[in-house]
Amino acid sequence: MPRYNNYAYIDGANLHYTYENLDWKLDYQKLFDHLRSKYGVIIAHYFMGKTPNNQAIYDKLSSYGYNIKLKDPSPYLTDEEVCPHCGEVVNPPEKRYKADIDSYLTMQVMSDINNFNKAVLITSDGDFDELVERLVRQDKLRVVFAPCRNGCSKLLKRAAKDKIAFIDEFRTDLEKI
Predict the structure, then answer these.
(1) Sequence-ordered list of residues with C-beta below 8 angstroms from that of 63, at least 6 positions apart, any chain
(2) What is the pLDDT of residues 11-64, one digit of tens each?
(3) pTM score
(4) Is the C-alpha dihedral spanning 38, 21, 45, 105 positive or negative?
(5) What's the CA gap between 69 and 61, in Å, rounded?
(6) Which of 112, 132, 137, 146 lies at a 20 to 30 A Cα distance from 101?
(7) What sign has the CA pseudo-torsion 62, 64, 69, 71?
(8) What are the sequence ranges of the domains in the chain?
């Protein structure tokens, strides 16, 4: 029987896009090992959009121990961008896809709440502030482990209070070499 029974819930897009824009690459195997050793995580749910050409990524993350949770993306149309000076269309509307996993992740946490001792939430997204506040009230939050201090929502920081840490502060331990 494990000493801890903590679950991690990872906002995959938030984590991925943060590290796509930083000057170092996150090692996802090291991250999983860190979650286990530092935070007592036994299950790590990794939420992301389902894209057929990402199967290799899903397989790799699964091989590290993550429980992949996929959501089908929804189509949307970008706004047309018009030059304010001449009125010409600079960028026409473009069809894109977005898999908004926020509600999916939140529902999973609430479904699991009686199965874990504490939750570890990996995101910088302020949309999770109410979930974090609820977990704090119920003494079910271990930590919000935000990808980057500078990009972390003030709402999320306020909700987590003193139960927040930042992945970028563990660069020496978590960087892909």
Answers:
(1) none
(2) 999 998 888 888 889 999 999 999 999 999 999 999 999 988 899 999 999 999
(3) 0.87
(4) positive
(5) 11
(6) 137
(7) negative
(8) 6-174
Q: Among 165, 152, 175, 146, which Cα is nearest to 28's?
A: 175
Q: Which two tokens stand for residue 108?
A: 């999973």
3-state secondary structure 100-133: CCHHHHHHHHHHHCCCCCCEEEECCCHHHHHHHH
- Per the CB < 8 A criterion, the answer to whether 144 and 164 are in contact is yes
Give dist(CA 139, CA 27) in Å, integer. Answer: 30
E-strand stretches of 5-162: 6-11, 41-49, 67-71, 74-77, 81-82, 89-91, 95-98, 119-122, 141-146
pLDDT tens digits, residue range 123-142?
A: 999 999 999 999 999 999 99
Per CATH, the architecture of 6-174 is what? 3-Layer(aba) Sandwich (3.40)
End-to-end CA distance of the chain: 34
Side chain identity at residue 14, one-letter code: N
